């Protein structure tokens, strides 16, 4: 089928036909669930495979047989995802705070017990009072442990919920942003781990306990104002230490994290290029680059941690000295009959409880800063993502391509890579793009499929600018074979099917036959289930290219861009490619093929010669070929600039 319903939850096309839709395909018998799942073996057809009629591709483009509309899908609102994630945190935090309140109140049980024993039991010498008191206090302590466990359980579940809510939106937004970004966008997923880690950390517990410190201080104040004053001064001293610590450690921690993320990026590229690194004996250099960034990160970390440890030591000393001071001054007050011994010890214990969360917050300050920065990056990515704008699902395109005054100057450079490129192709027309190395052919190809955006000018598919197409619908309507073919780790049929789970075996088989790769796949021990590793093994360069060609034609798209599709192909591969282009023409698929090989030019309708990013020649195949031949005969350089022919 040419298009499926859109599942609003997943954004995927489903294989069911829209209700009430009338076209010639409804005449075909429907035999229940005819779409085998991707895990089953494909049986190749014995005879020649008829070209797939346009509009028969479940996952791909449409037949363009009339104004069929997809169901309009909601926008991918990442801002909303972020808000949902935050509301989960907020909702749970209210309950966690209630548990924290209960925990903190019950913490007073032990000091109260001490106080009661020394001041009531010792004076009354009542066994009953002691038993009663012990039972009540033991109950309070158990309850406190239970409440504390509950709040930790809740925090852990909140962290999991946040990760579950935000993981997919972050990865989608990162994948989208990486197109024009720095390549660091994917690291935002690591930021989510940081935030998750913070939500279950002891630092957050300390942060939540801090607001109850005044309660404890008040309790001490009630025991004796002098002792209260000692604790207040200590708490203020700890706050000052915390602020100084933040100032001292913020910058070095920032530097450490930046250097670490650079080292991680380098590690990532090393793992992707491990073969070349080994073959060219580049391991020492690669390790040195990683070592430099890691060393820089570690140096900054040591600097920051030194300061952090110093602050923590000072604050611990302040806390312990406070307790010493309270005991000493308390004893002095007791000697003057203003306090009992039990009161002094109880006040000292309460002071420890009051100051512990402040100290914990100081120690965990760095992890708070990291998590805050991580959350900032997550929020920036999700709020800034362009995917969140709603797009209308249009009728399936027919394949009309209009390119208008394309100018491309890569960001951060002044080099004009493409200049005033303009041409049009009707549905089913094929264009061969030729030109010297560096003429801009690959850049133009990428621009036609929207993987890079022009500095100015427009690329339109069926009159609609690429930027305004629903990205999913646009992706299903086009095919692209990049110059540097990369397959995904997965089976061959998953690769041909663009990893779609709703792809039918027929579609996969048809695409494989079209790319003349079916026989090659059949000869592999596991056939279509052969697992392709991240480096493309066990396939050869030509085989990879043909599987990528099958992927490009999968689902009968309406526009296919092939960038040097025959660079790794033998004569049979070349013939298969010519057949694929003829098939495309027969099915009104518009094809743009970037090539250096003259053999492919014999099957295209039009030819464009690019020179230094500009159109040097454009027109019907024969006149352009004649003109090119004339140039060669006249000894002219083939990429010399001329006026466009058409
Ligand atoms: N992002 C970029 N930043 C800077 N320069 C770029 C960028 N993208 C392309 N270029 C430059 O644009 C020019 C055209 O590159 P392009 O890859 O399109 O050439 P090509 O015609 O496909 O060459 P080849 O046939 O060798 O593949 C090159 O000089 C390249 O260095």
Automatic annotation (TrEMBL):
UniProt keyword Metal-binding, yes or no: no
Q: Output the PROSITE patterns linked to this UniProt entry.
A: ABC_TM1F (PS50929), ABC_TRANSPORTER_1 (PS00211), ABC_TRANSPORTER_2 (PS50893)
- Bilayer topology: Multi-pass membrane protein
Task: List, for all copies, the residue spans of the domain called ABC transporter.
Answer: 401-637
Which terms are listed as keywords in the entry?
ATP-binding, Membrane, Nucleotide-binding, Transmembrane, Transmembrane helix
Q: Which residues form the ABC transmembrane type-1 domain?
A: 94-370
GO annotation (BP), single: protein secretion by the type I secretion system
Q: Entry's InterPro entries?
A: AAA+_ATPase (IPR003593), ABC1_TM_dom (IPR011527), ABC1_TM_sf (IPR036640), ABC_transporter-like_ATP-bd (IPR003439), ABC_transporter-like_CS (IPR017871), ATPase_T1SS_PrtD-like (IPR010128), P-loop_NTPase (IPR027417), Type_1_exporter (IPR039421)
Q: Where is the composition biased (Basic and acidic residues)?
A: 18-27
Q: Where is the composition biased (Polar residues)?
A: 7-17
| MF term (GO), any | ABC-type oligopeptide transporter activity
Give any Gene Ontology cellular component. type I protein secretion system complex
Q: Where in the cell is it found?
A: Cell membrane
UniProt main location, coarse: membrane
Q: Does the keyword DNA repair apply?
A: no
The segments labelled Disordered in the record are 1-75
Q: Which PANTHER family match?
A: ATP-BINDING CASSETTE SUB-FAMILY B MEMBER 10, MITOCHONDRIAL (PTHR43394:SF1), ATP-DEPENDENT PERMEASE MDL1, MITOCHONDRIAL (PTHR43394)
Under NCBIfam families, the record lists: type_I_sec_PrtD (TIGR01842)
Q: What is this protein called?
A: ATP-binding cassette, subfamily C
Organism lineage: Bacteria, Pseudomonadati, Pseudomonadota, Alphaproteobacteria, Rhodobacterales
């Amino acid at each position: 089928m040419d298009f499926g319903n859109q599942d609003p939850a997943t954004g995927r096309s489903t294989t069911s036909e829209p209700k009430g839709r009338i076209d010639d395909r409804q005449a075909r018998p429907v035999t229940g669930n005819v779409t085998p799942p991707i895990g089953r073996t494909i049986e190749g057809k014995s005879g020649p495979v008829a070209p797939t009629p346009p509009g028969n591709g479940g996952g791909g483009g449409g037949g363009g047989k009339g104004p069929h509309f997809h169901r309009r899908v909601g926008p991918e609102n990442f801002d909303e995802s972020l808000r949902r994630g935050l509301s989960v945190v907020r909702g749970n935090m209210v309950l966690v705070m209630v548990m924290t309140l209960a925990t903190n109140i019950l913490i007073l049980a032990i000091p109260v017990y001490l106080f009661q024993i020394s001041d009531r039991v010792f004076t009354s010498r009542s066994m009953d009072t002691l038993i009663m008191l012990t039972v009540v206090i033991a109950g309070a302590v158990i309850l406190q442990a239970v409440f504390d466990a509950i709040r930790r359980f809740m925090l852990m579940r909140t962290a999991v919920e946040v990760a579950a809510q935000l993981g997919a939106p972050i990865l989608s937004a990162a994948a989208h942003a990486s197109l024009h970004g720095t390549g660091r966008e994917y690291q935002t997923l690591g930021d989510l781990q940081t935030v998750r880690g913070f939500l279950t950390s002891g630092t957050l517990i300390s942060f939540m306990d801090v607001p109850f410190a005044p309660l404890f201080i008040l309790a001490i104040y009630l025991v004796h104002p002098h002792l209260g004053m000692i604790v207040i001064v200590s708490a203020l001293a700890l706050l000052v230490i915390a602020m100084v610590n933040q100032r001292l450690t913020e910058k070095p921690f920032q530097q450490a994290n930046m250097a670490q993320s650079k080292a991680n990026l380098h590690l990532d590229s090393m793992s992707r290029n491990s073969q070349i690194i080994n073959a060219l004996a580049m391991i020492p250099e690669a390790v040195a680059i990683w070592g430099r960034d890691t060393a820089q990160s570690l140096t900054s970390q040591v600097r920051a941690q030194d300061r952090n440890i110093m602050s923590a030591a000072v604050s611990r000393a302040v806390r312990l000295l406070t307790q010493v001071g309270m005991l000493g001054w308390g004893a002095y007050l007791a000697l003057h009959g203003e306090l009992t011994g039990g009161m002094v010890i109880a006040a000292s214990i309460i002071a420890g409880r009051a100051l512990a969360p402040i100290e914990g917050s100081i120690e965990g300050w760095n992890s708070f800063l990291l998590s805050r920065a991580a959350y900032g990056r997550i929020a920036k990515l999700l709020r800034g993502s362009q995917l969140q704008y709603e797009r209308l699902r249009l009728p399936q395109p027919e394949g009309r391509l209009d390119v208008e005054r394309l100018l491309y100057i890569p960001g951060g450079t002044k080099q004009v890579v493409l200049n005033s490129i303009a041409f049009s192709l009707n549905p089913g027309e094929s264009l061969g793009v030729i030109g010297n190395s560096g003429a801009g052919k690959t850049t133009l190809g990428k621009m036609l499929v929207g993987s890079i955006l022009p500095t100015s000018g427009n690329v339109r598919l069926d009159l609609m600018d690429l930027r305004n197409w629903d990205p999913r619908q646009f992706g299903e309507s086009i095919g692209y074979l990049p110059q540097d073919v990369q397959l995904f780790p997965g089976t061959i049929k998953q690769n041909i099917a663009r990893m779609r789970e709703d792809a039918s075996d027929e579609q996969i088989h048809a695409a494989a036959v079209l790319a003349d790769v079916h026989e090659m796949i059949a000869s592999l021990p596991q056939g279509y289930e052969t697992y392709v590793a991240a480096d493309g093994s066990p396939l050869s360069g030509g085989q990879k290219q043909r599987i990528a060609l099958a992927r490009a034609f999968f689902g009968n798209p309406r526009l296919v861009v092939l960038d040097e599709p025959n660079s790794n192909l033998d004569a049979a591969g070349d013939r298969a490619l010519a057949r694929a282009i003829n098939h495309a023409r027969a099915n009104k698929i518009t094809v743009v093929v970037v090539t250096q090989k003259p053999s492919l030019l014999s099957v295209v309708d039009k030819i464009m010669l690019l020179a230094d990013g500009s159109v040097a020649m454009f027109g019907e195949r024969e006149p352009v070929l004649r003109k090119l031949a004339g140039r060669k005969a006249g000894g002219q350089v083939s990429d010399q600039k001329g006026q466009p022919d058409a």
